Amino acid sequence: MKHLFVGAQEFILIFLPSVLFLSLIGLFIYVVYRMVDRWVDKSVAARHEQNVLLAKLIELVGKKQDG
């Protein structure tokens, strides 16, 4: 029975394409993760800004009702 990985040719023809394929999958997952992370950060920042403005509005209305 002949061994599957005999020499450098088998290494180049089998192992390296597998590693490159897995690397491409990893790169795709990383890019999608970064895109989603950026969207979440923008959404959280917008929500924080809305909360700050709403707090100022509530404070202003409260002062107007008191005085």
- Counting helices, strands and paired strands, the structural category is mainly alpha
Approximately how much helix is present in the residues? over 70%
Q: From the alpha-carbon coordinates, what is the Rg to the nearest angstrom?
A: 28 Å
Would you report the number of β strands? 0
Question: Judging from the principal axes of the Cα atoms, what is the shape?
Answer: rod-shaped
Percentage of residues in DSSP E strands: under 5%
Return residue spans where pLDDT drops below 50 for at least 5 consecutive residues.
none
> Alpha-carbon distance between the termini?
95 Å
Mean pLDDT across every amino acid position: 88
The secondary-structure element order is H
Helices, by number, come to 1
How would a textbook summarize the main sheet? Answer: none
Written account of the structure:
By secondary structure, this protein is mostly helical. It has a domain of 40 residues. It contains 1 helix and no strands. The protein is rod-shaped.
Describe the structure concisely for a colleague.
Keywords: Membrane, Transmembrane, Transmembrane helix. The protein is an all-alpha fold and about 70 residues long.
Keywords summarizing the entry:
67 residues; mainly alpha; 88% helix
